[in-house]
Design brief:
The complex is a heterodimer of chains A (307) and B (267). In chain A, helix 4 packs across helix 6. In chain A, 42% of the residues lie in helices and 20% in strands. Chain A has a 6-stranded mixed β-sheet with strand order 6-7-8-3-9-10. In chain A, strands 2-1-4-5 form a 4-stranded antiparallel β-sheet, with no helix packed on it. The radius of gyration of chain A is 22 Å and the shape is globular. Chain B is mainly alpha-helical and 267 residues long. Chain B has a two-stranded antiparallel ribbon with strand order 1-2. In chain B, helix 2 packs parallel to helix 11, helix 3 runs parallel beside helix 6 and helix 4 crosses helix 6. Classes of the chains: A alpha/beta (307), B mainly alpha (267). The interface between A and B is medium-sized, with 24 and 18 residues.
Chain lengths: 307, 267
C-alpha cells in the first residue's frame, strides 16, 4: 500500500492577512515496509505534512494517493483512509476520554463498526502490542495511569484500528529515558513483526538514526534532504545549519576528524563508531590499551542517552 | 469549522473614540442605555440615532459593521415586533381582518420596542468594536473598585475576565488538535442526528476539560511563583488617565441625555 504525495502545498488561512505556507511543493513516495524518519526543526512543517497522509488536512494544492486512491478528491471515505493510515499525535495521552482503558482503546474499532467479539479481540491485541497487561489495566480509568502508561494506551487506541501504515508524531516527547527506550523498542518491534510501514516524526537524531530505513529532512516547509541515515548524517554542516544535528556517534567522529584523525564520515551507530575508534588505536600499535580506552569513552555515553 | 470564531469584535484603530479612556466609554455606554430607556415616543429616537451616528463616524466604523451586530438578534427582533403588533390591544383600529386586529397603539409600540432593541445593540457594539477586551476589563476593575467596601472582588473579577480572554485562542487550538486526534481514530463530528452529534462531543469535551483544569493549575502555580497575591498594592503598567477628549465626550453625551429628558417631559 504505497503512499504517493504529489506537489503537496499547504497554506494556512489562504487569502487572509495571516496566511502562511507550511508546506511548499513536496513530492515523494513511501513504499510498503519502509521505516521513514521525518526530521525537521520546530515549525518546519513535519506535523502539517503527516496530517495530510490520512486526510485530516486537505492540501491547498497537490494530491495524496493512498493505496491507489486519491484521498484529496471529494467523496472519498475518510474512515477507510484512517483505517489504513493510523496517526498517533504528539502527546497522545491528552486524547484519552473513556471510563476504562479497554473502552478507550475500543473507540477506534467501534467507529469502524466492528462486531463486539472482534473489538474485544483487537483491544487485547493492541494492549499486548504496547506491552500492557490486559487483566491489569483493562478495567482501570486511563486517568489513573502514569504518563508513560497513558501514552501506551493512546498508541494502543490507534493500533486497534490495525493500520497498515503507522505514523507517530514525536512519540518520545516528554518521556524519561526508560520510557523513551521502551517506546522506541516497541515501535521497532511493530515495524519488524507486523510488517507495518512506519513514519516517525522526530527531532531527536539518536532516536531515529538506528530505526529508520530512510530519512526525510524538512526545513521551512520544503524537503531539503532525503536518503538513508548514513547518507543524511554525513552532511553534518548542512544539518547544523537548519537547526538540527547528527547522532552523538557521528558528532564524535566529526569532531575527531576536525582534530585531524583519519576517521570515516558515514558511521553513526555506537557499535560501529566504537569499532572505528578501536581500529584507529590498533593501527597506532598498542591494541590492548586502545580497547580499554575506547570502551571507557563509549560506556558512559551509553548510560546517558539524554546527553 | 473553528476558523470562524473571532475573539470579540474589537477593530483596532487610532481614532478619538479608540483613544478614549475605557472608563469613559463604559460610563457613557451606561448613560446611553439610560437615554434609550428614557425615549418617550418613536420619533425621539432621532437623538440616540444622531448620537450613535456621531460616535461611529468618529470611530471610523462603517454602517455595515454596525448592521452586522444586529444580525444575531434578527429573530428576537421579528418576534418582538410581531407580538407587540398583534397583542398590545388599543382603541384606534386600523386593520380588522378575521382574528387579526392591528391598532394604531400596537404599531407604535411594536416600532418603539424594536427601535429600543436595535439601538441598545448598535450602541453597545460601538463600545466593543473600539475597546480591546483587556482595556475593557481594566476599566471595569477600576469602576467597580468603590464596591470594595461591601467586599466586592473587583480585581479578582477583572483578572478572571482577562485570563478567560487570554485562554480562548489556546483552547480553540487545543480543541482543534483533540478533534483531529479523535478523527484519526474514526470519530465523526459532522453527521448523524442531534443525539448522535451530542454523543460525538464526549470524546472531545472530556479531554478538553481535563486539559483546561491542568492548565488552570499550572497557571495558578506560575502566578504564585511570581508572587501574585491579589490586587492588594498592585501597580499597573498602563495607568488610565482622563484627558480633554474624555471631558468633551462627557459634555456631548450629557447634552444628548438632556435633550431626551426634555423631550420626554414635553409629551
Amino acid at each position: 500500500m504505497p503512499i504517493e504525495v504529489e506537489h503537496l502545498t499547504h497554506t494556512y488561512l489562504p487569502g487572509s492577512p495571516f496566511s502562511s505556507t507550511a508546506i511548499h511543493d513536496l513530492s515523494l513516495t513511501i513504499e510498503d515496509g519502509e521505516f521513514i524518519g521525518v526530521l525537521g526543526h520546530t515549525g518546519s512543517g513535519k506535523t502539517t505534512f503527516v496530517q495530510h497522509l490520512n486526510g485530516l488536512l486537505k492540501p491547498t494544492e497537490g494530491r495524496v494517493i493512498v493505496d491507489g486512491v486519491d484521498i484529496t478528491r471529494k467523496g472519498v471515505s475518510l474512515l477507510d483512509v484512517r483505517r489504513k493510515v493510523g496517526l498517533v499525535f504528539q502527546y497522545p495521552e491528552y486524547q484519552l476520554f473513556e471510563e476504562t482503558v479497554a473502552k478507550d482503546v475500543a473507540f477506534g474499532p467501534k467507529n469502524i463498526g466492528l462486531s463486539k467479539t472482534e473489538i474485544d479481540e483487537r483491544v487485547r491485541w493492541a494492549l499486548e502490542q504496547v506491552e500492557l497487561d490486559f487483566g491489569e489495566v483493562a478495567g482501570v480509568s486511563p486517568f489513573e495511569l502514569s504518563g508513560g502508561q497513558m501514552r501506551r494506551v493512546a498508541i494502543a487506541g490507534v493500533l486497534a484500528m490495525k493500520p497498515k501504515t503507522l505514523i507517530l508524531d514525536e512519540p518520545t516527547a516528554g518521556l524519561d529515558p526508560r520510557g523513551r527506550r521502551a517506546i522506541l523498542a516497541m515501535i521497532r518491534r511493530l515495524h519488524a513483526e507486523n510488517s507495518m510501514t512506519v513514519i516517525m516524526v522526530s527531532h531527536n537524531m539518536d532516536d531515529i538514526g538506528p530505526l529508520a530505513t530512510r530519512l526525510l529532512v524538512m526545513n521551512r516547509g520544503e524537503l531539503v534532504m532525503e536518503g538513508t541515515p548514513r547518507e543524511v548524517f554525513r552532511r553534518h554542516d548542512e544539518m547544523l545549519a537548519i537547526g538540527l544535528g547528527v547522532p552523538r556517534g557521528a558528532e564524535l567522529l566529526y569532531r575527531l576528524r576536525q582534530e585531524g584523525y583519519p576517521l570515516p564520515d558515514d558511521l553513526y551507530t555506537l557499535p560501529e563508531v566504537r569499532d572505528a575508534l578501536l581500529s584507529l588505536y590498533a593501527s597506532k600499535g598498542d591494541a590492548s590499551a586502545a580497547r580499554t580506552q575506547a570502551a571507557d569513552s563509549a560506556s558512559p555515553k551509553e548510560a546517558t542517552p539524554d546527553a | 469549522m473553528l476558523k470562524d470564531i473571532t475573539l470579540g469584535q474589537y477593530m483596532p484603530g487610532n481614532t478619538v473614540v479608540h483613544r478614549l479612556d475605557p472608563r469613559t466609554k463604559i460610563l457613557l455606554t451606561t448613560a446611553y442605555i439610560t437615554m434609550i430607556f428614557l425615549v418617550g415616543s418613536p420619533l425621539w429616537y432621532v437623538v440616540p440615532a444622531l448620537y450613535v451616528a456621531l460616535a461611529s463616524r468618529l470611530a471610523g466604523l462603517s454602517f455595515g459593521q454596525l448592521l452586522k451586530s444586529i444580525k444575531p438578534l434578527r429573530f428576537l427582533l421579528i418576534l418582538t415586533f410581531v407580538l407587540n403588533l398583534f397583542f398590545s390591544g388599543g382603541t384606534t383600529i386600523w386593520v380588522h381582518w378575521g382574528f387579526i386586529t392591528i391598532a394604531k397603539e400596537g404599531v407604535l409600540l411594536a416600532v418603539h420596542f424594536s427601535m429600543r432593541l436595535i439601538f441598545l445593540v448598535v450602541g453597545t457594539s460601538v463600545l466593543t468594536l473600539t475597546t480591546s477586551p483587556v482595556a475593557l476589563s481594566d476599566g471595569i476593575e477600576i469602576l467597580l473598585k468603590p464596591l470594595k467596601v461591601v467586599h466586592f472582588p473587583s480585581h479578582e473579577l477583572a483578572m478572571m475576565m482577562t485570563i478567560a480572554l487570554r485562554f480562548i485562542p489556546t483552547l480553540i487550538e487545543e480543541t482543534d488538535k483533540i478533534m483531529k486526534a479523535q478523527q484519526a481514530r474514526g470519530a465523526d463530528f459532522e453527521s448523524g442526528n442531534l443525539i448522535a452529534r451530542a454523543k460525538a462531543m464526549v470524546p472531545l469535551l472530556v479531554p478538553l476539560f481535563v486539559s483546561a483544569f491542568r492548565r488552570a493549575g499550572e497557571l495558578a502555580m506560575a502566578m504564585e511563583a511570581r508572587c501574585y497575591h491579589g490586587g492588594e498594592g498592585r501597580t499597573r503598567l498602563r495607568v488610565l488617565r482622563f484627558t480633554m477628549e474624555d471631558t468633551k465626550a462627557f459634555l456631548v453625551s450629557a447634552a444628548a441625555l438632556a435633550v431626551v429628558i426634555v423631550g420626554r417631559s414635553l409629551l
